[in-house]
Amino acid sequence: MMDATTSGWNVLDTAHEALRTAVREVPAGAWTWPTPCTEWDVTQVVQHAAGDQLAFAAAITGGPGPGFDPFAPSGTIDGDPGAFLEPMLAACAAAWATVDKDAGTVPVPVPPNALPPRVGAGAAALDAAVHAWDIAMATGRPSPLTGDLARELLTVAKEIVEPLRQYGAYADAIEGDGDDDVAALLHYLGRDPRWTA
Questions:
Q1: In what residue span(s) does the Mycothiol-dependent maleylpyruvate isomerase metal-binding domain sit (predicted)?
Q2: What is the mean pLDDT of the chain?
Q3: Which secondary structure element, helix H or strand E, spans residue 115, and what is its range?
Q4: Which pTM value belongs to this model?
């Protein structure tokens, strides 16, 4: 039997682990620190990222989505943030574990609301991994993005991000010069790879 936190999609499992690790390594007292998501602090990014993962699960299963608006996070989590995050990651992974890799499309919570399975799993992974980067940068931790992960995510990003920019889901791309794979992904998503708090 597959572990509840394993989706069977390597890119998504890698991204989930990056997000899980980033949250686990937030220092005490850092939950209100600023992040590369300029409107949100660390707690709000955690809430947003967790809610997005549950929204991907709900799109697939028809089950309940987050009981809050991931795009208007409160900045308050009762109890341990890792314990808040984990069931939403597990629900997302369990949902993706049911998806046939050869299916034509799979429901997703982002326009156009149905994507080929590889792209859909990548979309969920992109959200988790980039917010893991946001949290890590905000708290002075090493980047969780590797070159291999960034290359795979950039391929997905180029398939889904442009229409989402109009909704404010991603900022406009930033020009980069001589980018490595991680910087190329971050620049495409409108993030400065050298961001510091």
A1: 13-136
A2: 94
A3: strand 114-115
A4: 0.94
Chain centroid to CA 58:
16
HEC letters along the chain:
CCCCCCCCCHHHHHHHHHHHHHHHCCCCCCCCCECCCCCCEHHHHHHHHHHHHHHHHHHHHCCCCCCCCCCCCCCCCCCCHHHHHHHHHHHHHHHHCCCCCCCCCEECCCCCCEECHHHHHHHHHHHHHHHHHHHHHHCCCCCCCCHHHHHHHHHHHHHHHHHHHCCCCCCCCCCCCCCCHHHHHHHHCCCCCCCCC
Q: How many residues does the chain have?
A: 197
**pLDDT, tens digit (0-9, with 9 covering 90-100), for 6-26:** 899 999 999 999 999 999 999
The answer to whether the beta carbons of residues 90 and 4 sit under 8 Å apart is yes
Instruction: Name which of 25, 74, 16 is nearest 45 in CA terms.
Output: 74
DSSP secondary structure of 99-112: S-TT-S-EE-SSTT
Domain borders along the chain are 10-25+34-62+78-188
CA 88 to chain CA centroid, Å, is 12
The two three-digit tokens of residue 153, written as one number: 């995510």
